[in-house]
Amino acid sequence: MKDIRSVLVVDDDDAFRYTLVKSLRRRGLEAFEAAGSEDALRVLGEHAPDACVLDLKLSGESGLHLLPRLLAVRPALSVVVLTGYASITTAVEAVKGGAVNYLGKPADTDEILAALGGAVRVDEED
């Protein structure tokens, strides 16, 4: 089981991305966001998060094409692929490509964290 303290959310749906990032932060995690691949790679390089929530369908591109690029930068990254267009074919492709899990939307924060399969670490303040 891997400790998860920080998560990158890559989704072109601004409202969904904002809501998920806010929810992750309320749970004590560091959360970063990106709307597309170049932004995601920049944030990944700057902050080295432990995990990533990656939308399957980004504007003009597939999250499955971004997945190997993310893992090339940070091989230990735990990635969950989210999609509103779930299929067995893309689920298999995502897992073969290195994702730790694949979830259909809508998925709530607890489901996403469970899919990451890590021990979420929350630093308690006294």
Q: How does this structure look, described?
A:
The chain is an alpha/beta fold and 126 residues long. 41% of the residues lie in helices and 26% in strands. It is built from 5 helices and 9 strands, in the order ββαβαβββαβαβαβ. The chain has helices spanning 14-26, 37-47, 63-73, 88-96, 109-116; strands at 3-4, 6-10, 30-34, 51-55, 57-58, 61-62, 78-83, 101-104, 119-120. Strand 5 and strand 6 (61-62) form a beta hairpin. Helix 2 packs parallel to helix 3. The protein is globular. Residues 122-126 have low confidence and may be disordered.
- Kindly state the percentage of residues in helix: 40-55%
Secondary-structure element order, as H and E? EEHEHEEEHEHEHE
* Net shape: globular
* End-to-end C-alpha gap: 27 Å
Oligomer: single chain
Largest sheet data = 5 strands, parallel
Number of helices: 5
- What would the average pLDDT be, to the nearest integer? 90
Query: What ranges have pLDDT less than 50 throughout 5 or more consecutive residues?
Result: 122-126
Structural class: alpha/beta
Number of strands: 9
Q: What value does the Rg take, in angstroms? A: 13 Å
Q: Taking strands numbered 1, 2, ... along the chain, how are they ordered across the largest sheet?
A: 3-2-4-7-8
Strand fraction: 25-35%
